[in-house]
Specification:
- The complex is a heterodimer of chains A (about 450) and B (about 500).
- Chain A has about 450 residues and is of the alpha+beta class.
- In chain A, about 45% of the residues lie in helices and about 15% in strands.
- Chain A has 16 helices and eleven strands.
- In chain A, the strands form two sheets. A six-stranded mixed β-sheet of chain A has the order 1-2-6-3-5-4, with helices on both faces. A five-stranded mixed β-sheet of chain A has the order 7-11-8-10-9, with helices on both faces.
- In chain A, α2 (about 75-80) crosses α5, α4 packs parallel to α9 and α10 packs across α16 (about 420-430).
- Chain B folds into two domains: about 1-215, 2-Layer Sandwich (Cytochrome Bc1 Complex, Chain A, domain 1); about 235-485, Cytochrome Bc1 Complex, Chain A, domain 1 (2-Layer Sandwich).
- The radius of gyration of chain B is 24 Å and the shape is globular.
- Chain B is α+β, with helices and mostly antiparallel strands.
- The chains are: A alpha+beta (about 450), B alpha+beta (about 500).
Amino acid sequence: MLPALCTALLGISMLAQAAGPQQKAFPYAYDQHDFSNGLRLITVPTDYPNVVAVYIVVQTGSRNEIEPGKSGFAHFFEHVMFRGTKNMSPEEYEQRLKRMGASSNASTWDDRTIYHTTFSKEDLDELLRIEADRFENLSYSEDVFRTEALAVLGEYNKSSAEPLEKLNEVLYDTAFDKHTYKHTTIGFLKDIEDMPNQYAYSKVFFNRFYRPEYTTIIVTGDVSPVAVRAMVEKYWGNWRRGSYKVDIPAEPAHSGPRTNHVDWPSPTLPVISVAFRNSAYTDTEADSAALDLIGQLGFSRNSDLYRKLVIEDQTADFLAFDNFDHLDPNLFTVIARVKKEADVSRIRDQILATLKGFQDNPVPMDKLEAVKQHLRYAFALRLDNSEAIAMTLAHFISLRRTPETINRLYDRYAALTPADLQRIARKYFTENERTIVTLSTKQ
Amino acid sequence: MKFRWMFLMVLSAAAQSFAGQMITQPGKSPLVTIRLVFRTGAASDPKGKEGLAALTAAMVAEAGSRRLTYQQILDALFPMAVNIDDQVDKEMTTFSTETHVDNLEKFYGIFRDMVLDPGWREDDLRRLKDSAINFLQVSLRGNNDEELGKEVLYNEIYAGHPYGHYDIGRVSAIRSITMDDLKQFYRTHYNASNLTIAVAGGYPKDFPSRLQQDFSRLKGSADKLRLPAPKRIDGRELVMVEKQTRSVAISLGFPIDVRRGDADFVPLLVAKSWLGQHRSSGGRLYDRLREKRGLNYGDYAYIEYFPRGMYQFEPDPNLARKQQIFQVWIRPVKPETAHFALRLAIHELERFHRQGLSEEDFEQTRTFLSKYVNLLTKTKRAELGYAIDSQYYGIPNYNTYLKSALAKLTRDDVNRAIRKHLPMENMKIVVIAENCGKLRDAILSEARSPMKYNSPKPKEILEEDEIVEKLPLHVRKDSVKILPVNTVFE
């Protein structure tokens, strides 16, 4: 499942096709090109005039933080990428973006880091030039590096009042022993506080992962693929391929269920999260698609449990699930915010009973079809401007480096049967791979 | 942009029976975007019933209609992947939605009933009251120090004024709201003469007239909102919120007598963009506080209301107001640097007022805004929202308005507007922190607040720090209040 995006919406003349039963889920024609250094370019011309979005996807994230004490480093490095090059100071970079009237930012997550800019089409050549410069010629002093580390601490601090951040941190720390998914993208506080001292390691990190073979450039909007290809060749063609292959430690099978609890220091409502190790993202097998459907059927706003807990009994004011796509097995999580502490264990049991229901009983066909229709419309509804198209693509590119994976995934959704869901529920919702974490106000 | 404006037809209702405004933007897209905006909101909440406008909107968009229960609505909308969003601000209540044209008939029947014939069920009310109260007590007071700081700033600036409470309301007031209160508010304020309907996309030709006909049924009438001037701020006033938290969130500001459409709006827009363009690393405050000193994650400035800024890059439309404030958002800082960070922000603001923008800064910011404006209306939802706001402010299409004003603008216009509208002597400063008393004492005694860095700093920064660390803040001693967090919005 895609992480929720703040931009949602619709794919113009293509939507009619997108929603139709025989059409591809990703309705746009695109140009996919591999350069000799390993860099990949995906260009998607759209009908939206004047605007262009460039999303640069680097397949490194907190999953790549394999050394102890380095949690949060991929995210920190995202900050460092704005700190200037041999040819251009950070101030000059900012001024150039300003002259373009560009909206620019970056984000890091478990499996990838994305640098994105949206701007007017006449500035595409310039944008690709200054972006190539920082990917190839990044250069920063230790003083600047140490100052930037404080901004990352500021980022941790600004979210620190949110209990769900802490709950998530504890959930992953509890659910994983070996795999780097044990830590969240922002990292452990002790590692963040040590970041100013990691200047030498930052060079190692850059040399390993900021390489063409880890990178895909997505260009969407009012563009011609031929022209874009020439621009990228001009500025990115000499970028040198690297040789580093990351070896992510596999998470062994667990021998029993796990629980943990977070005591929150100030008044809040209790939260419960029930998680099971899930499938790595796959567009060739049923597993991740089936888990998405189970999540929707069991815990979305029109599910029976939502009706019971949120609308009828009103014992919870929030119920949702996550089954975000990852390169390696991650977590299928159901989360509920509960109004009274006394109801937490009952709601936990109801969540578990709902999951067991998927193992014991095939889901009704009409419900299954409604969810399939929902997913297809919801996806098409996201694609209503060039930036949203690039943003949506970036997620899938970080997993498989091609838009085709979207069509394959939606084919998997379409093919799922009640028996598939039952089989997948039995495969993943096992007690040994279960982690339950609760949070409540410290008594 | 003029070209596009020609297709954006504003049909005055004079020729129809519909008493409101209609904006249509027909197109080939199979998507149909609908936006209903009533000119009513939290400023019309009766005293003691703060939150009534927001709860009424929730009872329309997040509850059942007379025909269908909320669950039946969720079930029906689910396969279409349609959401109905409601947003209540001081003077506007917005319902926005989008559907594929294939589903338009089925969806519209449900949506129309929700708005025209709400279900007014007690179980929906109980759920939505809980939700509003939990939002205030947990999501805002407990979990989001930044938004809390901003909203306390508005509450304090507008104390005793119709804008003087948060849009969602107060906990005890929400508890006291009855079904009759909601029905009464709905009957009075949800009337066709208050309503703008905007629709875009590949809808059937007769759809706009059906909308007008259907919504003509809303017959109530409300008194026109009258707003007094906000109370004058006397010097620098400090309001602190005491809560358990690991960092210190700061917001500060004061009312301005400028809004979209006024002669000085675009000059001030350039000024605030240079000082602190939202979530951009190109602003002056961001550069001085974060980039040069690593004090926090970011620092920005505003001349229009912009809630939820930590979650989004562009502002939501339909938050139009007759009165606005100038505001600075300093993202959380470590407690030991809070006094210095506040001083540095004030130091920058005083310099900003004194010196204004250089010619180069002005040109660069003007170029930025004249291109950046295109990105604000990249979706149909936003385009319709901006069109409604333009109607409210009596200006043409926002892109046209901004670009033509920017083309004529001079640096002198900007610097004159800064001097006129942004004096930095009188302001409210809001701080969310633990151990407020300690910070208050330091601020009132004007104690030095030297910075310690984790790396060598250029001479220019160190010399400036020597001035900043002893910069008098001139906070009025008798203005200081410390509010326990559980009393805020209570």
